[in-house]
Amino acid sequence: MFIVMLKRWTIEALAAGATDLGYPSVAHGMFSRGAVELVEYFMDSCLAKLRETLIVNTEKLQAMTVAERLKFGVRARLEMLEPVLATWPQGMAIGALPQNAPSTAKRLAMLSDEIWYFAGDKSTDLSWYTKRAILTGIYASTELFMLNDKSPNFQDTWAFLDRRVDETIQLGELPQNLNDVAGMASIGLQSVFSAVTSLAGPLAGQIISNSPLSQVPNPISAVGSVVPPSVVSAVASGMPFNSPASAGPAGHDAMAFKSKDLDEINAELEKLGGADASERRS
Fold first, then answer.
1. C-alpha to C-alpha distance for 55 and 149, rounded to whole angstroms
2. How many domains does the chain contain in total?
3. Is residue 282 situated within a structural domain?
4. Could you please report the per-residue DSSP string of 91-122?
5. Backbone phi, then psi, for 276, in 5-degree steps?
6. What is a single cellular component term in the Gene Ontology annotation (predicted)?
7. H-type helices in 119-177, by residue range?
8. Does 1 fall in a domain?
C-alpha cells in the first residue's frame, strides 16, 4: 500500500505496482475496470487479514460478550485503514460511484457476516439479515468518523464505535419482513454514500481526472443522494451468501454470492420454521 500512499487510488498506482513486480507498466491494462479494482483488492485483502485475526483470537473472543466481540471485529478492520487513511476518502468515493456501488455493498455485507459469525451468531430467522444490516451501518458510520478524527490513537473513534454498538444493536426492535430490512439497508447506504460524496468530493477530483473515471460526466455528483436500486439488490443478494443456518468459514468464498431477489429470500425464510439446521446447510 506504500504506492497508494504516494500515487493514491489511480491507474498510475496500478502501473507502478506492476513495475515493482517486474512487469511492464502497461500491465495495468489487465485491470479493465481501472482504479476500482485496486480499491476492491484492498478491501478483499483486509477481509482475509481480519479473518486470520479473528481465528487467532478465538479463545480471547470466547471470553467476551457479544457486544465486545463486535467492537473487537470492527476495530480490527478499521485499524487496517491507518496506512492509507489520508487517501481513503478517494477510495471510498470510487467505491461509491453508481457502477461500483453494488460490488462495494456486497463487500460490506461480507465483512458484517464475518464479524457476526465470530461473534457467535447462530440465528436462523429474520434477525440473521437484520443484524448484518445494522452492523454494516455501524461499520460505515465509524469509518466515516475515523476519517476526520484527530484524537490521539483515534480514541474518539473507538469511543464512537462503543456508543454505536451499545446504542444501535437493539435486536428486540427488528423489522417484521425482509423488505423492511432492505429498506433499512438502503437508507443506511444512502446516508453513507451521500456522506462520502460530501467528504471526498473536493479530494477526489485529482484521482478521477487522472483515471478512466474521467470519462464519466461529473462522476462524484453522479452518486447523488439516492442509492441506485442495484445497490439494494446487491445487499439483498449479498447478505445470504453464507445462509442463515450454515454460516461459517467453509462458506466464505470471497465472491460466493447467490443471485436471489426478495421474493426468493422470503420464500426461503418461510421454510425455516421447524426445519433442522443441518437440513438447510447448503
1. 29
2. 1
3. no
4. HHHHHHSTTTHHHHHHHHHHHHHHHHHHTT--
5. -75, 140
6. mitochondrial inner membrane
7. 127-147, 155-168
8. no
Of 275, 244, 103, the C-alpha closest to 178 is: 244
C-alpha cell at 246: 450454515
Look up the pTM and report it. Answer: 0.64
**232 within a domain of the structure (yes/no):** yes
User: Is-contact 84 4, C-beta < 8 A?
Assistant: yes
Residue 206 lies in a domain: yes
Distance of alpha carbon 86 from alpha carbon 152, whole angstroms: 16
Alpha helices for 27-100 (secondary structure H): 36-56, 58-62, 66-79, 88-96
CA–CA distance, 133 with 188 (Å, rounded to integer): 8
For 188, the domain range is: 36-272
154, 208 Cβ separation under 8 angstroms: no
Question: Is the CB of residue 105 less than 8 Å from the CB of residue 235?
Answer: yes
Per-residue pLDDT of the chain (282 residues; tens, 9 = 90+): 544 444 555 656 555 555 555 544 545 455 556 678 888 989 999 999 999 999 999 999 999 999 999 999 999 999 999 998 988 888 888 888 888 888 998 999 999 999 999 999 888 877 788 888 889 889 999 999 999 999 999 999 999 999 999 887 654 444 445 455 555 555 555 555 555 544 444 444 443 344 333 333 333 333 333 334 444 444 444 443 344 444 444 344 333 333 333 444 444 444 433 333 333 334
Residue where the block lists cell 489511480: 10
| Contact (CB, 8 A) for 89 and 199 | yes
